[in-house]
Design brief:
Structural class: alpha/beta
Keywords: Cytoplasm, Transferase
CATH architecture: 3-Layer(aba) Sandwich
Oligomer: single chain
Protein name: Sulfurtransferase complex subunit TusD
Largest sheet: 5 strands, parallel
Strand content: 15-25%
Helix content: 25-40%
Organism: Pseudomonas abyssi
GO molecular function, one term: sulfur carrier activity
Main location: cytoplasm
Length: 129
């Protein structure tokens, strides 16, 4: 079974951790993830600038490792990312900002990528509000 997973919750929201556990369970169960789509405050998970206290889970790093280890398609909504200051190299140059704070394995793209994922997935699951 193919799953499309959308995450709307930021790194501090329990829904972000629940989404990761669900995604891990999907793959462990022998299913596929056609696309992960990060929207609203979930785009902060793609930022390399967040720092967690040593005694807390670095959820952004866990998501990054999960995506890389499983070679998943992870799309960050470009409009939500720009509003929240999450920029890749191309957008940092385009908007004349001094630094980019996201990159591989994340791809900045539009909401159409989520619609495309819905067309190919057997199930769509959303975490957060």
């Amino acid at each position: 079974m193919k799953f499309a997973i959308a995450l709307l919750a930021g790194p501090q929201d329990p829904a972000a951790r629940s989404a990761l556990k669900f995604a891990e369970a999907v793959l462990a169960g022998g299913h596929q993830i056609s696309r992960l789509f990060f929207y609203r405050d979930a785009v902060h998970l793609a930022s390399t600038l967040g720092v967690q206290p040593q005694d807390e889970c670095d959820l952004a790093q866990r998501w990054r490792a999960f995506i890389q280890d499983n070679q998943l398609d992870a799309v960050v909504c470009i409009a939500a990312a720009l509003r929240r200051g999450v920029l890749n190299e191309a957008e940092a140059d385009r908007w004349e900002r001094p630094v980019a704070n996201t990159g591989e394995p994340w791809a900045l793209s539009g909401l159409g990528q989520w619609v495309d994922a819905l067309q190919t997935a057997d199930r769509a699951v959303t975490f957060g509000t």
